[in-house]
Amino acid sequence: MKKSLFRLFSGRIPERSRKFMRISLAVSDTILAAALLIEVYAGGLSLSTYSAHRMAAELYRLPCAVLLFGWILAFAAAE
Which of 28, 46, 50, 66 has its CA 20 to 30 A from that of 1? Predict the structure, then answer.
């Protein structure tokens, strides 16, 4: 029997879903920290550091997708 999303997490969150949420949050935080370290290491924007800044910008966008995927897995694991 299918449960509505409101009733799915209205009580206790299943342990399996909580693990997916924690893992996705930890991975996204690590990616954000890596993007910050690359930005600090690269320094100012110039022709020689453009690729590092571009990579940091791509890494900065990635955690949103990781969190979305983790929460979708958490919802799927709760059923």
Answer: 66
Within 8 A by CB and 6+ apart from 43, the residues are 49
Alpha-carbon span 47 to 40, nearest angstrom: 16
> CA nearest 35: which of 48, 27, 22?
27
> In the chain, which residues have pLDDT < 70?
1-11
What is the value of pTM for the model shown? 0.76
Residue 11 class from Cβ within 10 Å (0-12 exposed, 13-18 middle, 19+ buried)?
exposed
